[in-house]
Write a structure and sequence with these properties.
Blueprint (H helix, E strand, L loop, with lengths): L1 H17 L10 E5 L7 E5 L2 H6 L8 E4 L5 E2 L1 E5 L3 E4 L4 E2 L1 E11 L2 E12 L9 E6 L5 E10 L7 E12 L5 E4 L1 E3 L9 E5 L2 H5 L1 E7 L3 E4 L3 E10 L6 E5 L6 E7 L8 E7 L7 E7 L8 E8 L3 E6 L6 E9 L1 E6 L6 E5 L11 H5 L35 H30 L1
Antiparallel strand pairs: 1-27, 2-26, 3-4, 3-27, 5-26, 6-17, 7-16, 8-9, 9-15, 10-14, 10-16, 11-12, 11-15, 12-13, 18-19, 18-25, 19-24, 20-23, 20-25, 21-22, 21-24
Helix pairs in contact: 1-5
Length: 421
């Protein structure tokens, strides 16, 4: 009976140790927030060091504590990283092709087709805007074809409607934009075919382009040089040395390299499998030299593969958006934002309650430099503190095994005793 009492006492003691909540000392790094105003919630913009030091994607190993060491509910929101700036239209060179036709028994030379030159255009247009000279009314269909440089070889693309209609009062209906499909990346020329009188009335062609993303100060970037994958000259891999919320990847290559198509993947661990982030086609880098690829993921490891050979080292700018941590006003200041733990994973609930209290107010608080949570000298960079020991877990497992053995032995003794009786 004494042995059973000892076992029960040890089990209760270890279970109590395991039931203890995480404290700041169970995390690698910390930031202090000294609240300066009364508010239901407070917020900070997370610095880059957080993403460099977290051990889990999506900041899953983060917790907020008040000055008493109590956990504080919080949520993390994205900060808009960029806006889109329109690209001004650009006039394009175009050349008429003529043919002779017989009209009323008279041979006349008319415009048969227009060839639009895109050779000096670093971007591919998404539409064409046409200006017409004053002419009679028309409503006609124009077909479009493209060439990658050989004027004897054309690929039919699509067709569009052009219209210019007026009435006696001078009112005007004008349809002068031709939407372009996704053009092949090496497109050099576009050819328009249609009614000769309509083609002859075209006096100007402007190219419209997709808007360019403009990164704000809240958007960060990380330059990483990747290396070719083993035995692969068209796959380059990057190690970001952290879990960043990546949203854009800008690849820089020398003009001699082609970049006809690409696929981007990411993963969390070196031994993990690759997850797709994006794929597509882009412009020949003989004229552009860089390409912006929209991606989304928290992976530490990224992979870029193309259909053509890549240099031994490729540099890419990984753009990631700043994030805002918003926490409830619970307990006394200063608050500690603790992060970096191999064993902690925060719950994903309660964010809606916090977001409902924000009410559009700018409540950003100043955050300290990363600091050491244990004893020792302060450092401009955070330093490692003690990890939570796994010894109680192992001890509990041993005790459970001992209890099972003891209970089994006791049951056997009880059965034998009953048989003797």
């Amino acid at each position: 009976m004494k042995f059973i009492g000892i076992i029960i006492f040890i089990v209760i003691f270890v279970a109590g140790a395991l039931a203890q909540e995480f404290t700041p000392e169970h995390f690698d790094y910390g930031l202090n927030v000294d609240v300066t105003e009364q508010s239901a919630v407070h917020s900070v913009i997370l610095p880059a060091h957080v993403y460099q030091s977290t051990r889990r994607p999506e900041l899953a190993d983060m917790q907020v504590f008040n000055s008493a060491g109590e956990t504080v509910p919080f949520t993390i929101l994205n900060v808009e990283p960029y806006s889109y700036e329109p690209v001004p239209p650009k006039p394009l060179l175009f050349f008429p092709l003529y043919k002779d036709v017989l009209i009323d028994n008279v041979t006349k030379t008319v415009i048969d087709e227009l060839i639009i030159d895109l050779r000096n255009d670093p971007l591919l247009p998404v539409s064409l805007m046409l200006d017409f000279a004053p002419t009679s009314n028309f409503n006609t269909t124009v077909s479009m074809a493209v060439s990658e440089g050989d004027l004897n070889r054309w690929a039919q693309q699509t067709s569009g409607t052009l219209a210019r209609l007026t009435n006696a009062s001078g009112s005007l209906i004008l349809q002068n934009e031709l939407e372009l499909p996704m053009l092949p990346i090496n497109t050099q020329y576009v050819k328009l075919s249609g009614a000769a009188d309509v083609l002859a009335s075209i006096i100007r062609i402007n190219a419209n382009y997709p808007p360019t993303p403009i990164y704000h100060a809240s958007s960060m970037s990380l330059a990483v040089t990747g290396t070719l994958a083993e035995n692969k000259n068209n796959i380059v891999e990057f190690d970001l040395a952290g879990f960043y919320p990546v949203e854009s990847m800008v690849v820089e290559l020398q003009p001699s390299y082609l970049f006809p198509s690409y696929a981007v993947k990411y993963k969390y661990k070196p031994e993990g499998g690759w997850a797709p982030a994006n794929s597509g086609t882009t412009r020949n880098l003989n004229t552009q030299q860089t390409t912006n690829i929209d991606v989304s993921g928290y992976g530490r490891y990224w992979q870029l593969s193309t259909q053509s050979a890549l240099p031994d080292a490729v540099t890419a700018q990984f753009h990631w958006r700043s994030q805002e941590l918003i926490f409830l006003d619970k307990g006394e200041s200063p608050y500690t934002i603790a992060y970096g733990s191999a064993h902690y994973e925060r719950p994903r609930s309660g964010s809606a309650q916090i977001e409902a209290l924000i009410d559009g107010k700018d409540i950003n608080e100043a955050v300290s430099e990363p600091f050491k949570l244990g004893n020792g000298e302060l450092s401009p960079d955070a330093v490692l503190v003690a990890e939570k020991s796994m010894l109680p877990t192992y001890l509990l497992a041993v005790i459970i095994v001992l209890v099972v053995i003891f209970m089994t032995f006791s049951a056997i003794r009880l059965i034998k005793s009953m048989e003797r009786d």
